[in-house]
Amino acid sequence: MKPITAKDPESHSPDLVGENLARLRALFPEAFTEGQVNFEVLKQLLGGAVDERDEKYGLNWHGKRQARQLALTPSTGTLRPCPEESVDWDATQNLMIEGDNLEVLKLLQKSYAGKVKLIYIDPPYNTGKDFIYPDDFRDNIKNYLELTGQTDGEGRKLSTNTEASGRFHTAWLNMMYPRLKLARNLLRDDGIIAVSTDDHEGANLSTLLEDIFGGENFVVCVAWEKRVSPANDAKWFSTDHDLLWIVAKTKSSWRPLGLPRGEDQLAYYRNPDADPRGPWNSVAYTCNKSRDQRPNLYYPILNPYTGKEVWPKPTAVWKYGLEVTNHHRKDGRLYWGADGAATSPRLKLFLSESDPLVPRSVWSSRDAGSTQEATTELLGLFDGQKTFDSPKPVRLIRRIAQVAGCAEGDLILDFFAGSGTTGHAVLAQNAADGGTRRYILVQLPEPTGRSDYGTIADICKERLRRAGAKVRSENPMFAGDLGFRVFKLDSSNLKAWDPVQEDLPQEVQASIEHLKADRSEQDILYEVLLKLGLDLSLPIEEQTIAGKAVQNIGAGTLFACLAPTVAPGEVEPLALGIASWRQELAPAGNATVIFRDSAFADDVAKTNCTAILKQHGFEEDNIRSL
Q1: Alpha-carbon distance 67 to 159, whole Å?
Q2: Which of 72, 233, 465, 592 has the fewest C-beta atoms under 10 angstroms from its C-beta?
Q3: pLDDT of residue 499
């Protein structure tokens, strides 16, 4: 059996540096000497693409190098399942993860790389009052547990980032850079990221996104009208809009989806002549070209009502050639006014044949909601209690998802989840069109000082519960997914080998069982899923085989028996039972099976188990132990 231990690379999140080096080696093997990169050779191979000037265009700040390294440093944490805080745990495909989003993004790299259609985030605007995550380069898991009061000791206080700190913008950039760097890996090639901000960090965010995603993938900066009425107490200007930066993973692979017409646009479509093709609007039949410029567009059209030939003005000829005009005439698309006596026809455009509207760069509160609407939504869910400051409206997130083209089964990620608006929006949109979009939300358990909802993560979870119930009550025929699985960030279930020399014999004895005693089989199982790169929402079935609980994850992708003991007499029936279950499911590709290493009495029992499984189709590298 191939072991997975705390020293094994698989005990960490992906080694992004190692993966980058492997890609580089595949492209430029000549640039490697004794396992190291020879930059002189690499520069020669890249030719003029290397910029060696001292002064370069770009965004630089104190700590950028460390922030980049922080994104590349693997996490030794894990995500522990919390079924008791979840809704419809067994069936749902939605995830709500409580923890530091930097570490969570690292842990999601294997399972969700290249799978996310839309990332929407509403990070701290850096106004001096909001919290900036104080990342610790040395041990971010320890840092996180201290900040959130999950470890003994003095701990540290959550703090705001004021301009008096001396590194006002630097702190925000150091916080954002590694998170955006990791987020990019999760996007599909046809995926986009949308980031809300205001003017405090708008310029820096623009350059930061260009740095990470490439300037060629910038799409648009949307101005969203967040206020319905002005703030008359403002000192200088009433800030009535926020900014929404939209950047594609690969711009050439993505196009925005058109938007449906609103009531204002639909009001222009009528059917005064009872045309069987339904409501229509009309446009002028002339263009801005002259007779001299387009002589082929200067000709008469017969008005069927008056019997007279109608000529365009010499300075504004028809839009279409004679052949197209004859088609429009025969098809009844020329409109000559209510009395048929118009001096020039108009072209009928039918609503049933119209394309969706091209998204515009200014979104009104009428179309995308407002902050007032968002506050009212949240108050309504929480029976009038104010639980969260400055939420975003559900309609804003739904509009972003529409433009992104999120469709059946697409995954939407929000790693600054706040009150959970993104999850609420996904549920509402699925109920509206019968969709199956999924969400992953990540929120730090930042203390609120409240007795009912102690952290912002608690508010988020409660909103998801209440939003699901509301969607269900308003859409009783909707049979879609309204649940979510809760996971919490914690240190790994595997003990790290870090012996103290004076207690070496005791440390060696303790390391025989390298799974932590306070962790459940379910805790260990989901860490296995992360390490093997499997979706945390995969369905799990359980059978009892040879008296042991065996889980089948993803219809035969993974079989896990994490029982603490497997007696010698149980090895053969257990292995044969697992092999029989695999054969019954006939999964596509190779199946993996994993056991607790210390469960077997000795190496002979492990060898027998491996031999039986190999005889029945399991590959040796896919027979694993923890």
Answers
A1: 19
A2: 233
A3: 47
What is the C-alpha to C-alpha distance for residues 120 and 192, in angstroms, rounded to an integer?
9
CA–CA separation, 178 vs 418, rounded Å?
Answer: 19
b (16+ CB within 10 A) / e for 152-183:
eeeeeeeeebeeeeeebbbbbbbbbbbbbbbb
- The answer to whether 271 and 278 are in contact (CB under 8 A) is yes
Which of these, 407, 626, 392, lies nearest to 528 by C-alpha position?
626
Distance CA 200, CA 198 (A): 6
Q: How many residues does the chain have?
A: 626
Cα(361)–Cα(244) distance, rounded to whole angstroms?
9
Q: Which residues in the chain land under pLDDT 70? A: 3-18, 28, 31, 34, 41, 44-57, 127-139, 147, 149-168, 497-513
Three-state DSSP at 427 gives helix
SS (H, E, C) 149-206: CCCCCCCCCCCECCHHHCCHHHHHHHHHHHHHHHHHHHEEEEEEEEEEECCCCHHHHH
Which amino acid belongs to residue 329? R
Task: Please report, for the chain, the start and end positions of each structural domain, with discontinuous segments joined by +.
Answer: 2-63, 72-260+358-491, 263-353, 515-625
Rounded Cα gap, residues 369 and 245, in angstroms: 17
Q: Quote the pLDDT of residue 504.
A: 45
β-strand partners of 286: 318
Cα separation, 308 vs 77, whole angstroms: 82
Element (H, E) at 301: strand 301-302
Indicate the DSSP class of residue 354.
P
C-alpha span between 447 and 222 (Å, rounded): 32
Nearest to 181 by CA among 68, 15, 20: 68
Task: Give CATH superfamily name and number for 72-260+358-491.
Answer: Vaccinia Virus protein VP39 (3.40.50.150)
Neighbours of 437 (CB within 10 A): 24
CA pair distance 557, 585, nearest whole angstrom: 10
Dig out the tokens for 488 from the structure: 């919490």
SS (H, E, C) 244-288: EEEEECCHHHCCCCCECCCHHHHCCCECCCCCCCCCEEEEECECC
What is the C-alpha radius of gyration for the chain, rounded to an integer number of angstroms? 31
Q: Using an 8 Å Cβ cutoff, are 587 and 552 in contact?
A: no
Rounded to whole angstroms, the Cα distance separating 592 from 534 reads: 11
Distances (CA, A) of 611 to 558, 571, 606: 18, 11, 9
Torsion of CA 160, 161, 164, 168, to 10 degrees: 180
Please, what's the b/e burial string for 112-124 (b: 16 or more CB within 10 A of its CB; e: otherwise)?
bbebbbbbbbbbb
489, 467 in Cβ contact below 8 A? no
This prediction has a pTM of 0.83
Asked if residue 116 lies in contact with residue 411, where contact means CB atoms within 8 angstroms, the answer is yes
pLDDT for residue 50:
60
Angstrom distance (rounded) from CA 1 to CA 611: 10
Q: Is 44 helix (H, G, I), strand (E, B) or coil?
A: helix
Instruction: Kindly state the tokens that stand for 370.
Output: 């407002």
Q: Give residue-wise pLDDT tens across range 168-188.
A: 678 888 889 999 999 999 999
Q: State the pLDDT at residue 44.
A: 64
Is residue 188 within 8 Å of 114, Cβ to Cβ? yes
At 515, give phi and psi (nearest 5°): -95, 135
Query: Would you say 558 and 594 are in contact if contact means Cβ atoms under 8 Å apart?
Result: yes
